[in-house]
Each structure stands twice: as structure tokens, then as C-alpha cells.
Amino acid sequence: MAENVSLKSFVITMKASRALEEVTKKDIKKHGMRTSDFAILEVLYHKGRQTIRDISESVLISTGSITYVIDKLEKKELLARVNCSDDRRVVYLEITDKGKEIMDDIFPKHQQVIEELFQGISEKDKQTVIDVLKTVGHRAAEKE
């Protein structure tokens, strides 16, 4: 029986994804944060002011759960809600100075962990991984 390369690619991708997720979860936890907290702060840290909806789509957290996480981060003064002057229904989130200070400390260390995972892999191969996974991801999204 011939090996099904598509199926094998799928299984390897899923196993690699789980392994990467575990490593990053452990790293984030080491810094005293939950993955959902870090994900939201990371979006605000890199992209600036965002709506709750934009963040929810970026970090793949449901809008019901994200409100709870945002409330906790706001109480810790790591982010702030800002009302939109043009549309009262829209609320933006911004990282606070305190949140930025924490991310200035944590993010470079987190990035180093990720760099180590990809150590020894050529830039060309990394780009191939990006291109292939984007293609597969787009095809999967079309099937939803």
C-alpha cells in the first residue's frame, strides 16, 4: 500500500503544532501569565489600538471568553478600554504603559524561545513552511 503523503503531512503538522503550543505555553507560564493574557497583550503590543472584535479574530478566543480576559487585564492595569469618538458602539483596547513595560521584558525572551525552535532551519525552508501552511490554511478556511 502506497504511503499517503497528504495524510502524513497533516499528522506531522498537527503533532508539530501541539508540540510548539506546549513549549510556548510553558514559556508564557514561566513569566507568570496565561496564554490568553499574553496573546491579547501581544496583539496590542505589536499592532497598537484594536477593537475587541479584531483581537478576538487575531487570537482565536471567542468573544464571550475574551471579555473575561480583558476585564482581568484591565483590573491589572495592563490594558485600557477607549471609547470611539465616531461610533459609541465601538470600544478600542490599548496596552497601558505598565502593560508595555511587562511586554518589553517578556516578549524578547519569548521570541528567543521561538528562535531556538527554528534554529538550524534555513530562511528558505522557513519561508517554504510559511507558504505551504498559508495555502493549506486558506483551503481549510474555504471548507468551513
UniProtKB/TrEMBL annotation:
It comes from the Bacteria. Keywords: DNA-binding, Transcription, Transcription regulation. Pfam families: MarR. Residues 1-138 form the HTH marR-type domain. PANTHER family: HTH-TYPE TRANSCRIPTIONAL REGULATOR MHQR, TRANSCRIPTIONAL REGULATOR, MARR FAMILY. This is MarR family winged helix-turn-helix transcriptional regulator. It comes from Oceanobacillus locisalsi.
